Amino acid sequence: MSCRTTIRAVGIALGLMSGVAAVSLAGAMGSPAKAETIWQSLALAYANNPSLNAARAQLRSTDEGVPQALSGWRPTVSASASGGRIFSETDNFSNVRNNASISLTISQTLFNGFRTVNSVRQAEAIVRAQRESLVSTEQDTLLDAATAYVDVIRDTALVSLQRSDLAFLQEQVRAARDRFDVGEGTRTDVSQAEARAAEARASLNTAMANLNSSRAIYRQVIGIEARNLSADARIGKYVPKSLENALQLSEANQPLIRQAQHLVDAAIFNVKAIEGQLLPSVSLDGSLSRSWNPSANATITDSAQISGTVSIPIYQAGSVSSSVRQAKEDLGQTRLQLDVTRDQIRANVISAWGNYQAAEASIVAAQAAVEAQQLALEGVIEEQRVGQRTTLDVLDAQRELVNQQSNLVTAQRNRIVSGYQLVAAVGRLDAASLGLNVARYDPAQHYQAVRGKWFGLTTPDGR
Fold first, then answer.
1. pTM, two decimal places
2. What are the CA-CA distances from residue 151 to residues 154, 215, 385 (Å)?
């Protein structure tokens, strides 16, 4: 195998990491006409990922906190029934009679120190915070899916590189043996070539194991086997143009910041709700009842009652005061946590921006190194043919070329992944921002379905 043939085979492997190498992709991963794009994989992860679906279920559970808080506005109704036998004896006269009663009681709270108002607002703030948590989970899932997708592409390229390297080295073994048979080479040349070929075979096995691992992770995150993946995984159009722009976007779009803001609101309303326990409460109570044989002088007795109750707390043993102080400390903690989250997001954006810029610079350096090493390998092979270089020189030049090509593949992978990490850091790696072709989950649909429910044990989806 000539040097140019080897370099051409290696170029096919490197083409796996390029968005314009359709022919390379066809040779390494199947027909490009049937290739699955990264956007299709992201859409599958959005629809099927179990972690994301679990987060949606958690949000639906959180939605139920609002109707529970709204129940403070609604009346409570209870019914009771009783029956028994009464035995009495007076002056040697005994009497036995059966009695029974039924009653219906209604109680309506008219005022409870604004606890219901603030509890509802607190529950609504918690729902908004949980929605932002869902968006954050969505971004993490799509980032994992993109990383898994690109890792399969990278490891497929590395397997192709190792196969090309092994084919080149096997050709060197054959050539060394031919030269040894005609007396132009030494046993040392043959042994060196055989050792490098064995090393390349071991590297190929390792690369194939890494590819199998990447495929397994792809299956775990996206839900299907990785087949016929397209090499076009570009994210450049979603990447901010500058660090300042990235920081501004993160402040406005990052769901973790919005979640922390909503948790501050929830903590404020929690303080007010607990303070409401120190205020008077007013309730209206009514009851209807009928009794059979309630006494020796009556057979049936009907009664109706309506009453209003005003309760004024005077001293609750200090428990409510302690709860208020505790809630205020919790409020202070959530405000501090908001500052921590902002600082953390800022640091993540700066780090992601630096990694993205470094990855682009690494690609330029790696491409230059590959081109230089390709020329060096060609020169060493030509010099070997005229007796100015040894077999070991050719093997060393080939090893260096494969190392540089592997570095280029890794750098291209790192640029793509760091781009997705940067987009996630600014809060725009979600289905809506990416325009994924998938039915989007609407959290408001379940919320509206359960918010006004007065009764019913069945969930909106029929469970």
1. 0.84
2. 5, 8, 40
**CB contact set of 9 (below 8 Å; sequence gap of 6+):** 160, 164, 167
pLDDT digits (tens, 9 = 90+) for 358-383: 999 999 999 999 999 999 999 998 88
Residues 6+ apart with CB under 8 A from 123: 65, 66, 68, 69
Residue 8: how many other CB atoms lie within 10 Å: 11
Residue 357 confidence (pLDDT) above 80: yes
Strand partners, 81: 102
Residue linked to tokens 């030049």: 397
Domains recognised in the chain with CATH numbers: 3-451 (1.20.1600.10)
- Bridge partners for 87 per DSSP: 96
Cβ neighbours of residue 344 closer than 8 Å, sequence gap 6 or more: 256
Question: In this structure, what are the phi and psi dihedrals at residue 112, rounded to the nearest 5 degrees?
Answer: -135, 40
Place of tokens 């170029």: 11
- In contact, 287 and 119? CB cutoff 8 Å: no
CA distance linking residue 446 with residue 134, whole number of Å = 14
Which residues, other chains included, contact 165 with Cβ-Cβ below 8 Å and sequence gap of 6+?
Answer: 10, 200, 203, 204, 398, 402
Q: CB neighbours of 307 closer than 8 A, spacing ≥ 6?
A: 284, 285, 286
Instruction: Look at residue 84 and give its three-state secondary structure.
Output: strand
Nearest Cα residue to 112 out of 268, 270, 275, 267: 275
Report the alpha-carbon distance of residue 73 to residue 90 in Å, rounded: 52
For residue 389, the 8-state DSSP code is S
Alpha-carbon span 233 to 12, nearest angstrom: 17
DSSP helix/strand/coil, 146: helix
Contact 99, 84 (CB under 8 A): yes
Phi, psi at 227, each rounded to 5°: -140, 140
- Contact by Cβ (8 Å): 160, 210: no
Rounded Cα distance, 49 and 389, in Å: 56
The DSSP letter of residue 229 is B
The token duo for 262 is: 């909503």
* CA distance from start to end of the chain: 66
- Identify the bridge partners of residue 90 per DSSP, sorted by sequence position: 93
Whether the per-residue pLDDT at 61 is higher than 50: the answer is yes
The residue length of the chain stands at 463
